[in-house]
């Protein structure tokens, strides 16, 4: 395990999965096998390509997976284009873990859970979902509401079908924004679907996705009777250096790298509107 998060370690890519037209999931191992370092659900790692750049990404695999780490990465810039060009056998530098994590061993333990995700927003929640699945006796009912623009944009779709939807202890609700040939599931935006499903207000909610989706999902949850103290989200996109020293992650008096990226919504409500 890496005890100094500032020192990069070398990992090797052992598998690459094309999840959507612009999202790939990379499996990374330590050079001598196993995981590069341990983490908790919601934590991040800094991936870097020397001479190109570095960026923070959510660790999408569960801590209960002791064999490897996974990262689901959307192609949206110079570094991610380089990452998408990488293949099995190539090496990458990685350091971490960074940030806090979803309180799976404290506040969430014993609770009924509702996961709400949109698009690539499933990536950070996948780690929590699989952690909960592997420790099922510690949690109550589990419901997942996940949507994207189209069926082709659903991240980890095969895992959802083969594992999550095959699990009798989990309720999975999928939706896409617009009708599509070959899709016989729900059609509509995630916030509206959540209101339509009207989940029990005794659930604790974990939400991640595009900011506009989160905004309307939170409004819908409030209409249903949820309070901000029941909702958690992650702001890993605001993370920069990972340790709160560069100051570029600050929101008011909070530093996302140091105080986050996981926040309860009532904590965010006390901050400036810039987030």
Describe this structure in words.
The protein is of the alpha/beta class and 275 residues long. The chain has two domains: 9-98, Elongation Factor Tu (Ef-tu), domain 3; 113-234, 3-Layer(aba) Sandwich (Rossmann fold), CATH 3.40.50. It contains seven helices and 15 strands. It is globular, with a radius of gyration of 18 Å. The model has no long low-confidence stretch (mean pLDDT 93).
Query: How does the overall form come out from the CA principal axes?
Result: globular
Number of helices: 7
Quickly count the domains.
2
For the terminal residues, how far apart are their CA atoms?
33 Å
Q: Which architecture of the largest domain does the CATH hierarchy give at level 2?
A: 3-Layer(aba) Sandwich
Low-confidence stretches: none
Produce a short descriptive summary.
This protein has 7 helices and 15 strands.
Keywords:
275 residues, alpha/beta, Elongation Factor Tu (Ef-tu), domain 3, Rossmann fold, 2 domains, globular
Topology (elements, then pairings):
Blueprint: E1 9-20, E2 23-30, E3 44-49, E4 53-58, E5 69-74, H1 78-84, E6 91-98, E7 113-118, H2 122-134, E8 142-148, H3 157-164, E9 170-176, E10 186-187, H4 190-197, E11 204-208, H5 211-224, E12 231-234, E13 250-251, E14 254-255, H6 256-259, E15 262-264, H7 265-269
Helix pairs in contact: 4-5
């Amino acid at each position: 395990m890496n005890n100094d998060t500032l020192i990069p370690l070398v990992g090797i890519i052992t598998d690459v999965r094309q999840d959507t037209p612009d999202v790939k999931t990379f499996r990374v191992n330590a050079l001598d096998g196993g995981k590069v370092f341990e983490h908790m659900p919601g934590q991040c790692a800094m991936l870097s390509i020397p001479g190109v750049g570095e960026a923070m990404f959510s660790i999408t695999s569960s801590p209960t997976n002791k064999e490897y780490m996974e990262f689901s990465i959307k192609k949206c810039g110079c570094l991610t284009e380089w990452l998408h060009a990488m293949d099995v056998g190539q090496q990458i530098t990685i350091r971490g873990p960074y940030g806090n994590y979803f309180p799976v061993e404290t506040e969430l333990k014993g609770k009924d859970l509702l996961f709400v995700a949109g698009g690539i927003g499933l990536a950070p929640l996948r780690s929590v979902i699989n952690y909960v699945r592997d420790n099922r006796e510690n949690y109550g009912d589990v419901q997942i509401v996940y949507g994207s623009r189209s069926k082709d944009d659903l991240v980890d779709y095969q895992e959802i079908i083969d594992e999550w939807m095959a699990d009798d202890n989990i309720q999975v609700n999928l939706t896409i924004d617009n009708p599509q040939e070959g899709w016989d599931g729900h059609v509509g935006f995630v916030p509206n679907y959540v209101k339509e499903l009207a989940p029990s207000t005794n659930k604790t909610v974990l939400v991640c996705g595009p900011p506009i989706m989160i905004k309307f999902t939170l409004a819908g949850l409030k209409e249903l009777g949820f309070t901000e103290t029941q909702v958690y989200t992650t702001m890993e996109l605001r993370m920069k250096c990972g340790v709160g020293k560069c100051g570029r992650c600050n929101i008011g008096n909070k530093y996302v790298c140091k105080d986050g990226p996981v926040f309860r919504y009532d904590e965010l409500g006390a901050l400036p509107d810039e987030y």
